[in-house]
Amino acid sequence: MEPDRTPIDAVAPLRISFCGGGTDLPHWYEEHGGAVLSATIDHSVRVRLAPRDDREIRVRSLDLGHMVAYHLDR
After folding, report:
1. Strand ranges (E), the chain
2. Residue 41's CB: how many other CB atoms inside 10 A?
């Protein structure tokens, strides 16, 4: 059976961090504790994940017109 190659679309709200960013990471809060203050705003990020035949991940910003590629073997 061939794998499903259907692209996946996702949307997530953008978040603004007012303070404490990074203190919610385990290497910090396990020793020092942590607290953050953040909020979502009425903008979002949209992504589409699509399978590729090579070992490359491509990230493209449609708004900015930029694309970067990451090779998993490097």
Report:
1. 8-19, 37-49, 56-61, 66-71
2. 9
How far, rounded to the nearest angstrom, does the alpha carbon of residue 73 sit from its chain's CA centroid? 21
* Structure tokens that stand for 28 in this block: 């910090």
The pTM of this model reads 0.56
Is the separation of the CB atoms in 56 and 65 below 8 Å?
Answer: no
- Condensed to tens digits (0 to 9), the pLDDT of residues 17-48 reads 999 888 888 888 899 988 899 999 999 988 88
Q: Classify strands 56-61 and 66-71 as parallel, antiparallel or unpaired.
A: antiparallel
Q: What angle do CA 18, 12, 30 make, to 5 degrees?
A: 50
Q: Domain spans of the chain?
A: 8-71
pLDDT grade for 60, boundaries at 50, 70 and 90: confident
Separation of alpha carbons 38 and 46, rounded Å: 20
